[in-house]
Amino acid sequence: MSQPLLVDEDNAEPTEPVEPVEQAYGVGASVLSIGAALVIPVILVVFYFSFGFLKDEDGNKALQVVIAIVVGTLGVLGLYWATDQLINRLPRPVANAVRPFLFVGPALALLGFYLVYPAVNTLILSFKDRRSEDFIGFDNFERLFTESQYQIGIRNSLLWVLIVPAAALAIGLGFATLVDKLGKRTESITKSIIFMPMAISFVGAAVVFTFVYSFRPAGFGDQIGLLNAIKVGLGSDPVDWLAQEPWNNLYLMVILIWLQTGFSMVILSSAIKGVPIELLEAARIDGASEWKVFTKITIPTIKSTIVVVWTTVIITVWKVFDIVWVTTGGRGNTQVVAQQMVQEFFTNRDNGVGAALAVLMFIAVVPILLINVRRFKAEEAMR
Amino acid sequence: MTATIDSIPTTDGTGTPTLAPAKHRRKSRFPIVLTVSVIAAIWTIPTLGLLINSFREPGDIRAAGWWTVFASPFDTAQWTLDNYTRVLDDGFSNAFLNTLAVSIPATIIPITIAAFAAYAFAWMDFPGRNILFIAVVGLMVVPLQMALIPILRVYTDYDLNGTYPAVWLAHAGFGLPLAVYLLRNYMGSLPSSMIESARIDGADHFAIFTKLVVPLSVPVLASFAIFQFLWTWNDYLVALVFLGIEPKNRVLTVELADLAGRGEGALNLLPAAAFVTMILPLVVFFSLQRYFVRGLTAGSVKG
Question: Which of A204, A230, A357, B164 has the fewest Cβ atoms within 10 Å of its own Cβ atom?
Answer without folding.
Answer: A230
